[in-house]
Design brief:
Blueprint lengths: L1 E5 L2 H9 L6 E8 L2 E8 L2 E7 L9 H12 L5 E6 L8 E6 H22 L4 E5 L9 H6 L4 H13 L3 E6 L4 H5 L2 E8 L5 H10 L4 E6 L4 E7 L2 E6 L5 H4 L8 E6 L2 H12 L4 E4 L5 H11 L3 E7 L2 E8 L2 E7 L3 E3 L10 E5 L8 H18 L3 H13 L3 E4 L2 E4 L5 H22 L1 H12 L3 H6 L3 H10 L1
Antiparallel strand pairs: 1-5, 2-3, 2-5, 3-4, 4-6, 7-8, 9-13, 10-11, 10-13, 11-12, 14-19, 15-16, 15-19, 16-17, 17-18, 20-21
Helix pairs in contact: 2-3, 3-5, 11-12, 11-13, 11-14, 12-13, 13-14
Amino acid sequence: MISGDLKGPGDLLEILSGFPASKSGYLNLISRNLFLSLKLEKSKVKGFFTNYEVKSTKNPLNALTFVLSEMLSDTEGYFSFEENTAISEFIPVDEELESLVIKATIVRKEIEEILPLIITSSAVFTSKNAEYKDRSLFEILSNAEDPIEKLRELKNLLENGEVEVKELKETSSLEELGLDYILESVEYKKVNLLKILEALRNMKFTGFLEIEGDRKTLYTFFKKGEIFGIHPVSVEIFDYLMEYYSEFKASIVKLKEEFVETFAQAFIGKPVIASESKYISLGKLFLTFLSLREEGVLKIIKNGESYIFIFRNGKLFSARKTKRWEENWKVLLPDSQYTFLYREIYSTNVNYLFYVFLWNKILNVIKKHSLRDSENLVVRKTAEIPFIYMKNGRIEVLKNLNKKEEGEILKFLLFITEKVVSEIGREKFEKEIEEELKPYTEILRVLNLSTEISAVEEAL
């Protein structure tokens, strides 16, 4: 396998023009979110596969020419050449590679000529002429006898007002993901966050709540109003949702239901690759996932920014977090620091966090009454369980827990509760715990965790 970076149109032309005539195999290209694989037999292109919608076109060669011309616009990405491929859906063509490159270069030049008139190559036109009415530039060129002549004809018609732009149909990753702000960076003191959370639950909201402080950012993911993931995993989430943290800012971001669990993996998932980027070939990752039509999530950290790429059925979706979530088309990230790859969809709930939260509240009661025996039991148990730890007197969680691990936490919670009840009496214990939980009454109700308290009480 031969691979490398594409840092501009010149790099792409150099790869295409300098391709050895004696070589046969598959040339894979990615620029921005556009993927193209060329099936080469010596100097001829015998087929192509792309994530651009081209299947309904009448003239596959024109479609290929258009896609390649789009790649020649602000090229930034990767290439690879392989002798074998897992792609089985190549659209057949029969064209000399040199001829294809020349045509695509001219088409690109002609498109640049009319861009001041159409703004984007994704424009849809309107005209009395049925050949142009409600058709995109791609549809017009892919069905033309000669796309170059058709572009020159279109330019004249646009200048004469016989064809006009009806709409700009360019679809962004943010639109396809459904990523949209409902609330953006609002200070806690200016909103009633609990009422907003309750409304999100009632309206079966799908998306995430982003809480930003000076030192950390927390994410809570919702699907149909139910929480299925929290990042970072911390019992502090119950404190951070309280309104008295007035210096915090909250954002509520909507996502499409079909993408929310996949997107969330970049925060709550278990990476199959977690590495410094210098040890990873990003180009190979992108091209492999797109050519194999694999599903996965790639998260790249670069200078404090987060880039998230979602691979699905040969398509690439991406978003970038700087100060806010925004559109991203960059795939060439030379200065990236860390790379994480997620393959499995992993979701959880907040029950286990709530159980550890209760551990801490019971520990407060234990310390208040100087129950040394019980305190030692809690400390020893915390040391024995590999997925929890104690820091500054607070018990915390290291990772998302599975059902078995959650059960282990609950089992000890019930045990230590019974022991403390036997030492100070049920009435006093219930009064003390009620005082400990009093500041959290509303947030526990909104998160529907009051039922979990009842379940614990019933188990005693």
